[in-house]
Amino acid sequence: MAKTAKPHFHDIDGARSVLMFLSVALHAGTVYAPARPWITGNAERHDFFDWLIFGFHLFITPTFFFVGGFFAVMLLSRRTFGDFLWNRFLRTVIPLVSIAVTLNMVEHYLRWSDNSGLNGFSAWVASGDFARVWVSGEWALHLWFLVSLVSMFILAGVVHKVLPDQSAPRRTAVWLSDAIARLLKKSWAFALFLLLLAGANTANFAVASLMPGAYDLILPGFQSWYKLVSEFPFFVLGAMAALSPSLLKRLFQWRSWMPYAAALAILFQPYAQPDQGQIEAMAMLFANQLAIWVLVLFILQFFHRYFADPSPRTAWLADCALSMYLFHHCLVYIYGRMLVPVDWPIALEFTILTMAAAGTVIAVHELLVRRHAIVRLLFNGKTDIKMVRKQPGLWASFARRSPA
Q: Taking 90 as the threshold, does the pLDDT of residue 65 lie above it?
């Protein structure tokens, strides 16, 4: 009997890939955002970049966690517990450690050098700042998302291992996911579901904030409990969508009013402020979480509607996505640092900074990650170097016409 082909979710891959590319613009925006005055020494800043980075923060990382939960369950359905952990170790832990001890340390050194006025990498390693970076967890920089994701992968693997296939909790999870799907056929039910999701997130934050020591690091160099669980609901819904094809279908169903809701969310960007009272702050937190869910699900619906078919472009973007996410952060700082002395229009500087960082990562990916096995393993967690060399590269992927 011929084996059934494993489904490939090109729409989800496309969404994840494009968002990782958008991360470059997000972090380039911090160089010129008044809310991030410690990023490089650039004195010219504009409020637009606050709006830009806070808008991107609403949906980029939460979408990553939804995708992480979805693919965790998909992998567990196809692999043993040990194979799953080994796969996640290769794909997540090895790249995390590789960047943490290389480019992240370069960036931390440059920040220390810029702030202290002192030079010498060995002097920094011997300083108290070096130890503080590791003990405080600041070593992760933008990779904090991977640290949280690894913890969630381990939890998903343990739950899968402990609960047999036909156990009551598993059957209940599938039943609940299918039941939610049946309720989401109507647009009004989907809108109500968004409100319930926002309420669940708000309750999650409220409970986490009330736990003793919630903001303290769980372990030196790790994360706080509050940080660790902040994105957990997105991972859970992604896992539920993997358990129930009918729920996935309803979540990805195109709804004509969602683009307008997403536009309002990105335009107004509700955030709680320190000077607000408790009730007002909770209301703004709820509005913030509602905006996040609207944007996350709209993005997934958009890519499902327009990018569900396979293409060389989507395949290339998916392959380059992790490289873009891993490498760009330090490059943004380096190039942003180089642009400090120049006096060009701020929009031009931002464009040059974004394109220079993204272009450098693309070159590194094409010339190193796609060609050398050890580089691909360390910085992409993949051992498929022979196969990827046969696949079309950047030029071939975007020059050729996608199949009809």
A: yes
